[in-house]
Write a structure and sequence with these properties.
The complex is a heterodimer of chains A (about 220) and B (about 425). With about 220 residues, chain A is an alpha/beta fold. Chain A has 7 helices and 10 strands. Helix content of chain A is about 35%, strand content about 30%. The radius of gyration of chain A is 17 Å and the shape is globular. By secondary structure, chain B is an alpha+beta fold. Chain B has 2 domains: about 180 residues, no CATH class; about 230 residues, no CATH class. In chain B, about 50% of the residues lie in helices and about 20% in strands. Chain B has 13 helices and 16 strands. Chain B starts with a helix and ends with a helix. Classes of the chains: A alpha/beta (about 220), B alpha+beta (about 425). Bound molecules: adenosine-5'-triphosphate and magnesium ion (MG). Magnesium ion (MG) binds next to helix 1 of chain A.
Chain lengths: ~220, ~425
């Protein structure tokens, strides 16, 4: 039995105006596990991911990642920790608008260690964007932007990948490309936590977690 | 990569950057423009007030006995023409030379106008119309009646030096029905000459009943080459204060330090005294009323303009800071994204501040250039004279642009760096 790489202990998240987005969430995700997180809109999936990548903080409770208690992290601690260990695919595809697809990917390399154009080009080619490398985000379709985000999230080979609906905007062909990528990650024993509404994608995961009203409703192990 | 990001941010988002540069440009233009105006107003006002006339009158010592001719008091007709014209350029070499802004040597002679029925004698005034005095290093100082008597009412134009043209005093013109363009034959003790009337002058003084022409021509008419009977001098002066009063009452009561200070202050009396010492056989008298008003009005206006300048500076800077702050605030989600990708706060700070510094300096340079141009135009419009170049102000303006840009972005960038990243991302 492998050890827990992510552990949530009695985590709560309150927002202003009385929104209780997460209620007493206890979770333990093991290294190398592919977890799909599912649930209706507004159930707190994005909120949970944001607590795991340090873009947001829990109101109550404790989160351990890689055996480290993150509750004492400063913003700068989080920045370093995130770029070393976590790859992020956002629900919305956030790209720097004045940098090309290639440069956006290289930016992540740069902050992690050093920019490597070859490697960045290869990652975009693998994801079917070989012809779109020098385009700006505004010149790319939603699906293409999504794939740039995926390439960026994976470029530094993070131990943990947090993906918020990575196939949400993709057609079947591209969905397949992305699914293949995640298969490969699974084969490489990366820890993947993926939010998805897509039951096909969910079925591929080792484990499915259902959220509802900010609580873990039930789990399904494959 | 740092510079690459910076370069891309500026070059590929030209419109937004242009907005920031434009804001700084406009703001700094205004500040510099008003700055130039402020700095120059003192000098220009002074020069402007100078045209309210001469404030020191130089006469010959022997002209103290007034002589009346044909009902006019002409105190310098007799043997009074003892001042030498050649002595006057020396006034631009004395200690107070920079305060002396106008010199008009004058020669009164008695003449007759041919063709007048009564053959009455009329006063003829010769004066420097428009002269250039060398002041060393190849520079020249322009002076003469057309500079000093700007407050006289002139219909027509001043004659040129050596032009066979004259001005007719307004009373004279009325009495003898003289009009611009008329030709007058004037004769004095030695010669006679034909003049064309180029203008009618009204000074409110005895010039109104005289014919005015170039000093050289009048000297020729009377055979008094190189002689003048009096001179009007305008000088920039400091109004008399307690120290001057103390000296006037009892010169010996001044301490050495006070004396030193008194000696080095351009009180009208001091300047008059030095003029008197420079021109042989002369007495120089202060026409006190003018020089005093000149000083006080000037101090007040300078204060006012300085105050206005300060207000403009503060309000321009504040609104600039506001505009830049809002431009940075618009980029909060970008800052959040940089953080999410893994950029440290120091790195993001450096990125933004460098970019903003660049935009600020660029705006500052442009603003310095257009601002000084605006300043020059304002000076030109208000005082119709050239502004002195203010290189310091132009050199300072990029720095000013930088400061304003940084001040404007410091707070928003700091806040963006400490913001709730998830939320800022979400808002984009
Ligand atoms: N910044 C915020 N301030 C207040 N309430 C928020 C904020 N962010 C999210 N919420 C609320 O928290 C709840 C959970 O939101 P979350 O974004 O996690 O949902 P989700 O499960 O990701 O939904 P979806 O599938 O639509 O993306 C929602 O009710 C939402 O309205
Ligand atoms: Mg969501």
């Amino acid at each position: 039995m492998s050890k827990a790489i992510i552990a949530l202990h009695q985590v709560h998240k309150y927002y202003l105006k009385g929104v209780h987005a997460l209620q007493d969430v206890n979770l333990s995700i093991e290294e190398g596990q592919w977890t799909a997180m599912m649930g209706p809109s507004g159930s707190g999936k994005t909120t949970l991911l944001n607590l795991l990548d340090g873009l947001d903080r829990p109101s109550l409770g404790r989160i351990e990642i890689l055996g480290i208690d993150t509750s004492r992290f400063s913003a700068d601690n989080w920045t370093v920790f995130r770029r070393e260990n976590i790859g992020l695919v956002f629900q919305q595809f956030y790209l720097i608008p004045y940098l090309t697809a290639l440069e956006n990917v290289m930016l992540a390399q740069y902050y992690h260690s050093m920019a490597d154009k070859r490697q960045a080009q290869k990652s975009l080619e693998e994801i079917g964007l070989g012809a779109r490398m020098h385009h700006f985000p505004s010149e790319l379709s939603g699906g293409e932007q999504q794939r740039v985000c995926i390439a960026r999230a994976l470029i530094n080979e993070p131990k943990i990948i947090l993906a918020d609906e990575p196939t949400g905007n993709l057609d079947e062909d591209n969905e397949k490309i992305v699914m293949d990528i995640f298969h490969k990650l699974d084969a490489e024993r990366k820890t993947v936590l993926m939010v998805t509404h897509n039951p096909n994608l969910g079925r591929l995961a080792d484990r499915r977690i259902y959220l509802e009203h900010g609580r873990v409703k039930h789990e399904h192990w494959v | 990569m740092f510079w690459r990001i910076l370069f891309d941010s500026v070059v590929r988002r030209k419109k937004r950057k242009t907005l920031a540069v434009l804001a700084v440009w406009l703001g700094i233009s205004l500040i510099v423009g008003l700055g130039v105006l402020c700095l120059d107003t003192g000098d220009k006002m002074n020069l402007e007030l100078r045209s309210f006339g001469a404030n020191i009158k130089v006469r010959s010592i022997s002209s103290s006995i007034p002589v009346t001719v044909a009902g006019y008091e002409l105190d310098s007709f007799k043997d009074a023409n003892v001042l030498s014209e050649n002595d006057f350029p020396k006034l631009k070499e004395i200690f107070w030379r920079n305060n002396i802004t106008g010199i008009v040597p004058r020669l009164w002679v008695e003449g007759t106008m041919k063709g007048t029925i009564d053959g009455k004698k009329i006063p003829v005034l010769g004066l420097w119309l428009s002269r250039k005095i060398p002041v060393g290093q190849g520079e020249e100082c322009a002076t003469g009646a057309s500079h000093v008597y700007k407050h006289w009412k002139l219909e027509g134009r001043w004659p040129k030096e050596d032009e066979a043209a004259c001005l007719a005093g307004s009373e004279l013109a009325e009495n003898y029905k003289i009009e611009i363009g008329d030709r007058l034959e004037i004769s004095a003790s030695k010669n006679s000459m034909l003049f064309t009337v180029s203008g009618i002058i009204s000074s409110g003084g005895r010039e109104d009943s005289a014919v005015l022409a170039s000093l050289r021509l009048v000297q020729g008419l009377a055979g008094l080459e190189g002689k003048v009977s009096e001179a009007d001098i305008s000088a920039l002066t400091t109004p008399e204060n307690q120290l001057a009063e103390k000296y006037r009452v009892e010169p010996k009561s001044l301490t050495p330090a006070e004396y030193e200070r008194w000696y080095c202050t351009p009180y009208p009396e001091n300047i008059a005294r030095e003029i008197q010492e420079t021109i042989p056989n002369s007495t120089a008298r202060v026409i006190r009323r003018i020089s005093e008003t000149q000083g006080t009005v000037l101090t007040r206006i300078q204060g006012l303009v300085f105050f206005l300048g300060l207000i403009t500076f503060v309000s321009c800077s504040l609104s600039l800071i506001g505009i830049l702050a809002s431009i940075v605030s618009d980029r909060r989600s970008e800052i959040a994204l940089f953080q999410a990708i893994g950029a440290g706060r120091a790195h993001i700070g450096a990125l933004f501040f460098t970019e903003i510094a660049f935009l600020g300096i660029l705006g500052g340079i442009l603003g310095g250039l257009t601002g000084s141009w605006i300043g020059r135009q304002l000076i030109q419009a208000i005082f119709s004279s050239e502004a002195s170049p203010h290189f310091a102000l132009i050199l300072l303006s990029p720095l000013l642009g930088l400061m304003v840009a940084w001040l404007g972005s410091l707070w928003p960038v700091r806040r963006a760096l400490n913001q709730d990243t998830a939320r800022a991302l979400h808002e984009s």
